[in-house]
Amino acid sequence: SRGFQTSDMSRVYNSTTTFRVINKRITGPMLAVPLFSAWLLATTHIMFELPMSELLYPAGHPPLPVALVSYTNNFDFSLGSALELEAVALVLVVVAALRWLFNRFIPAGWRRGAMGGGAQ
Length: 120
Description:
Blueprint: H1 6-13, H2 16-46, H3 50-56, H4 64-73, H5 77-105
Helix pairs in contact: 1-2, 4-5
């Protein structure tokens, strides 16, 4: 028993239109919020990816992760802490802006709780 597959449904009805309707009206709305949340989590996690930052920054202009590590290694904890707080605030602003944009442009029926089953 393989379970229900949208590709099987499309083959049974021999129609690509059916497959598109199922994906647009069932699969898309169910997966839009979780996929966006997973992408946002991964993006904010790798925003301060240190090895990539160390390899790609131009000379004399270190990015935020490199500056954070250098201040901490030089025992300048006050400046490192202040910079870390600014970095966290920057990430929170970016996350809030992206979530606002996502909620602004996603159809109302795709949001969680729109059908009455989730948190309002």
